[in-house]
Write a structure and sequence with these properties.
Layout: H1 2-21, H2 23-41, H3 46-76, H4 82-120
Helix pairs in contact: 2-3, 3-4
The structure holds adenosine-5'-triphosphate.
Pfam families: DAGK_prokar
Keywords: ATP-binding, Cell membrane, Kinase, Lipid biosynthesis, Lipid metabolism, Magnesium, Membrane, Metal-binding, Nucleotide-binding, Phospholipid biosynthesis, Phospholipid metabolism, Transferase, Transmembrane, Transmembrane helix
Membrane topology: Multi-pass membrane protein
């Protein structure tokens, strides 16, 4: 049990480190909070909450993996290395894919609600 609590502590240490050092992670957390506020405002359905929370989890998870991979590349290859560059680029591409998926999902869920709010005004 003590080992489990320690592991959770290390995970929170990682979160704190990513938040303190990564501007992108702070932006993504802010966007996630805005999405949650919009979900509450528009009173979205359970299914829509599932999609929104899935997107939030995927984006934050991919950014954390990307941060870890970047740190590992910098550790093992501080000098310019073509392969090291590829590793970072591919890792960044994974974040991009999830970001596009999130943008599409957010648009499908929120755009009709925003438009009907505008029309009702
Ligand atoms: N050691 C390296 N060898 C070759 N190319 C690299 C190396 N380090 C970085 N690059 C290239 O520069 C790009 C940007 O790298 P960088 O480490 O600045 O990442 P970043 O996405 O700007 O991350 P952050 O700003 O969060 O540190 C990489 O995607 C890669 O193309």
């Amino acid at each position: 049990m003590k080992k489990f609590i320690l592991s959770v502590g290390y995970a929170f240490k990682g979160l704190k480190h990513a938040f303190a050092t990564q501007l992108n992670f702070r932006i993504q957390v802010s966007v996630a909070l805005i999405a949650i506020a919009m979900g509450l405002y528009f009173n979205i359905s359970n299914t829509e909450w599932h999609w929104i929370t899935l997107c939030i989890a995927l984006v934050l998870m991919m950014e954390l993996f990307n941060t870890g991979i970047e740190a590992l590349v910098d550790l093992v290859s501080p000098q310019y290395n073509k392969l090291a560059g590829h590793v970072k680029d591919v890792s960044a591409a994974a974040v991009l894919i999830v970001a596009i998926f999130t943008l599409v999902t957010g648009t499908i869920i929120f755009l009709p609600k925003i438009l009907s709010l505008i029309h009702a005004a």
